[in-house]
Design brief:
The structure is a homodimer. Chain A has about 200 residues and is an all-alpha fold. Chain A has nine helices and no strands. Chain A has two domains: about 10-55, Homeodomain-like (Arc Repressor Mutant, subunit A, Orthogonal Bundle), CATH 1.10.10.60; about 60-185, Tetracycline Repressor, domain 2, CATH 1.10.357.10. In chain A, about 40% of the residues are buried. Chain A binds a DNA duplex (30 and 30 nucleotides) through helix 1, helix 2 and helix 3.
Chain lengths: ~200, ~200
DNA sequence: AAACTATACGGAACATTGTTCCGTTTGTCG
DNA sequence: CGACAAACGGAACAATGTTCCGTATAGTTT
């Protein structure tokens, strides 16, 4: 399983504590958001704050550890939908999936788009992982002419995440219309440069 | 001019200080962002922190005071463009204007979408003021059939602001494509469920 | 089993920032 | 000029992130 035991084994209490912190973080994130005070997580895990910083030097490390599984699952969903559905529909369904992913994580959308250096790894990892799977849908759409070919998956995923954040902050459902407008725009005009020219071929 | 001098005149030093704080905030916002520490603004204005809180109890009050003019100018631009150009083009040009407004204010986009209660009045005021003028463009577009009629100005402005934030955080220009996709979607399919119907009148 | 050592721990201590509050200063007016 | 209300300044407090080191202990060696 391990390709090689790197150098040393971790101490048993350290392993226990790492797990306890992860568990506590999961609970605290759920009820107070991903920006909850370190001390709150430490108390929940019955651990000193030092232990948290030793295991997860950055807040983003902890967030990633907690949500990594769900991230991968959401990325896999893109892969699956892309294989099973026409590109435009796959995107629509996946946007719904992404919405659930973002909406169910208190404070996550805000952290993702905060620009705060403490959270900087989040967009890189999350949007990167998702985009790498969404790209296939866009490629398929570009190939069969149903989606405009000039949009990168990274940009699309980021745009969707931002639009979805609208309903996270305000009333639920408020972002639905704009998401649908965006996806329509993606399916619609190939967008030359100047005005619209209904057909070029 | 004044409909009525309310009750009392403000003390001369108070007037001076209010102005000094506003001036200092303008400078500090420009170089450190709208989330700069109060103490920094106080030092710049040569004033105690108490004076700032007395004049501007909430951070959002200070931000609003500093940018109110530019906000109104941006709203007026929507009005003017709506009167002078076809709806779709007016929106495209105005989105450009909005981009400049947002991009030139360090930390503003983050504050606007932070969800932080300290900044809560910002989206209400800024998006509200802008939306009230953008609505006319959407109405015109709905009337002549060039824009889908099911999008509220509030939602559109918020969506544009969020997309624009992408280039504020990352490389400049990164949001351009997605903004254009969104606007294309707005001009494209009028019906949520059915296909497109070129003319209704 | 005891001694030893590297690892990990806990949490006090420090730094930053928002916010309040009150003793002091000062503008205004009679 | 004196009295009073308005405004001031900044010390003080609270919340939070982060570091650091004396102490405890798991794992190892004898």
């Amino acid at each position: 399983m391990d390709v090689e035991a790197p150098v040393k084994r971790k101490r048993a209490d350290a392993v226990r504590n790492t797990a306890a912190v992860l568990e506590a973080a999961k609970a605290v994130f759920a009820e107070s958001g991903v920006d909850a005070p370190v001390r709150e997580i430490a108390a929940r895990a019955e651990v000193g704050v030092g232990t948290i910083y030793r295991n997860y030097p950055q807040r983003s490390d902890l967030i990633i550890a907690v949500f990594r599984h769900e991230l991968d699952a959401t990325a896999d969903a893109a892969e699956r939908l892309g294989a099973e559905r026409p590109p435009a529909e796959a995107l629509r369904l996946w946007a719904e999936r992404l919405r659930r992913f973002v909406e169910t994580k208190r404070g996550f959308a805000a952290a993702l788009h905060s620009g705060d250096p403490a959270y900087a790894p989040l967009p890189r990892l999350f949007l990167g992982v998702l985009a790498s799977k969404v790209q296939a849908i866009l490629d398929a759409g570009a190939a069969d002419g149903t989606l405009r070919p000039d949009v990168r998956a990274e940009d699309l995923v980021e745009a969707l995440a931002r639009l979805i954040s609208i309903s996270v902050d305000g009333e639920p459902g408020r972002s639905d219309t704009m998401v649908s407008v965006l996806l329509d725009g993606l399916a619609g005009p190939p967008a030359p440069t100047a005005q619209q020219q209904p057909r070029t071929d």
